[in-house]
Amino acid sequence: MRHGKKFNHLGRKTAHRKAMLANMACSLIEHKRINTTVAKAKALKQFVEPLVTKSKEDTTHNRRVVFSKLRQKDAVAELFREVAPKVGDRPGGYTRIIKLGNRLGDNADMAMIELVDYNDTYNPSGTAKKKTRRSRRGGGSKPTAAAAKPEATNEEE
C-alpha cells in the first residue's frame, strides 16, 4: 500500500534523488535562479525552503543540519552570509517558480525557479535606480538660475 506517500520520486532511487536535489539547491543558492523541469522545480522548492528557514538563525547546529543536506561548504556559507539576511523578515515563500513552456527536444514542461528577493523585475525597491524625466519646456535651467542669484546678492553686500 502507498498510504501517505505524497512524494515525487522523480524516476530515481533515493540516493540519486537526494544528490540531485542537493546539487540543484547549491546551484540555486549560487546563481539565484536556475532553469529546470516543473516537477524538479517543485521538488526543489520543498527541499530548499526549510533550509532557508534554518539559515535565518545562525547557530552551529543549524549550519550542521543545512550542511548535511547541501553537502557543499561554499553553498552553506553563502546561504548563511548573503541569502539569510536578505530574507530575514519574510515568513516563508523564499522561491518563485515561473513556467517557461516546453523543451524542444522532448517537450518537457520547463520552469525557472528563483529566489524571490533577488529578482529586480518583481522587487524593484532594492537596487533599481530612479529614472529622471526630461520635459521639452526646458525646466532644468530654472534651478541653476535660482542658485546663482543668492551668490550674486552675497557679493554685492
Automatic annotation (TrEMBL):
A single MF term (Gene Ontology): structural constituent of ribosome
PROSITE patterns associated with the record: RIBOSOMAL_L17
An annotated GO BP: translation
Keyword Ribosomal protein: yes
GO CC term (a single one): cytosolic large ribosomal subunit
UniProt feature, compositional bias: Basic residues: 128-139
Keyword terms, alphabetized: Ribonucleoprotein, Ribosomal protein
Ribosomal protein keyword on record: yes
One Pfam family from the record: Ribosomal_L17
Biased composition (Low complexity): 142-151
Chain intervals for the UniProt region annotation (Disordered): 120-157
Assembly: Part of the 50S ribosomal subunit. Contacts protein L32.
Recorded family membership: Belongs to the bacterial ribosomal protein bL17 family.
This protein's name: Large ribosomal subunit protein bL17
Organism whose genome encodes this protein: Mangrovimonas spongiae
Organism ancestry: Bacteria, Pseudomonadati, Bacteroidota, Flavobacteriia, Flavobacteriales
